[in-house]
Write a structure and sequence with these properties.
- By secondary structure, the protein is mainly alpha-helical.
- The chain is 63% helix and 4% strand.
- It has a domain of 67 residues: Transcription factor, MADS-box (SRF-like).
- It is built from seven helices and two strands; from the N terminus they run H-H-H-E-E-H-H-H-H.
- The longest helix has 69 residues.
- This is MADS6 protein.
- GO terms for molecular function: DNA-binding transcription factor activity; protein dimerization activity; RNA polymerase II transcription regulatory region sequence-specific DNA binding.
- One of its GO terms (cellular component) is nucleus.
- InterPro entries: MADS-box/MEF2_TF, MEF2-like_N, TF_Kbox, TF_MADSbox, TF_MADSbox_sf.
Amino acid sequence: MCSSSKLPATMEFPKQNPESSSQSKKIGRGKIEIKRIENTTNRQVTFCKRRNGLLKKAYELSVLCDAEVALIVFSSRGRLYEYANNSVRATIDRYKKACADSSNPGSITEANTQFYQQEATKLRRQIREIQNLNRHILGEALSTLNFKELKNLEARLEKGIGRVRSKKNEMLLAEIEFMEKREIQLQNDNMYLRARISENERAQQERQSESMMQQGGGHVYEPAASQPYDRNFLPVNLLEPNHQYARQDDQPPLQLV
């Protein structure tokens, strides 16, 4: 494999055309030698482009990575260009402090302690303000407020009461609508149950009539209607004399033979 990779001595490489080499240089961007640009115009144009690119990269770094960035650029004519997401002076002070703390490790702990103490003080103040505000809303400790503060408190309370009432009315309307729908549903269920009950009663009566017809051989016997009793009415045969039995006087006397 090594012998095959060697080129024969008689092989000649084609000569490159200078025009084609210049075209290839134009197509691809080659490396630029880092040195001072002698041409004033080109130097000024390059400064503007590079400066804008550097400021853009600093902005992207501060936004994407949440980093504190401070950029300071002086042109050859002495003009100042800067960018800082916080403040250039604050960033420089932080840089000086970090450089001083790096030489003294104990100062880092002191700085952290001081920072946390400041944060704790700030949080305690916020908690105290919130507690006072809650008392003011409940109508307590109003003697410390002036007329303007009382007026602002009144406006805030009225706005809050309006929101509470609107929410209450909204909930009441929703509840009324739900109850109306529930009433309609219950009425429909009641009508359905009544229809089912009437159907069951009709079916039961039909079954009873069929069973009575089967027991009576196909005829249904109904009891005769009882006549009302009249105590002033007597049968005729009770008033007439009985002809079957004659009196003793009408019979002939017995004779002894």
